[in-house]
Amino acid sequence: xxxxxxxxxxxxxxxxxxxxxxxxxxxxxxxxxxxxxxxxxxxxxxxxxxxxxxxxxxxxxxxxxxxxxxxxxxxxxxxxxxxxxxxxxxxxxxxxxxxxxxxxxxxxxxxxxxxxxxxxxxxxxxxxxxxxxxxxxxxxxxxxxxxxxxxxxxxxxxxxxxxxxxxxxxxxxxxxxxxxxxxxxxxxxxxxxxxxxxxx
Length: 200
Known about the structure:
It contains 5 helices and 4 strands; from the N terminus they run αβββαααβα. By secondary structure, the protein is mainly α.
């Protein structure tokens, strides 16, 4: 969920500036209980703010959890394959060394070239795998962000929040949060429902 963090910081900073501007601009005019007037096409309405706990979304959103399990399985499989290939190269080296004094200089140099080439190939395979996992992770995070954005747009047609913030324990920009405005469970349930429907 780290990809969410820079976006959250930017959105939060903009929102704080807007709230301060609106607060001081409307100081002295009629306002709601928060001291801020927000005007839309239907007139004045109270400012409504909610937040989604991203740490809890990771625990509760079935799609995210299934993707993390997939990643872990792929990583374990790749690690096993790479370790097996590395062990095979090491065993070949030990078997070659056991020949001792019978190894000619030409054989030793040829083995060293072959050993170096195999190790370089192994390192390249590792880099390729790590790149693939990283790309897949980015695609998954983009998909997760899109699913959340699409859901929240639809969700907010009824709820009419002015702002919905994201919160994560890894980024403490929200100094205080009243759990009354925590809509994480509703969002997680809605995301899971939409995900289950998409699978059908």
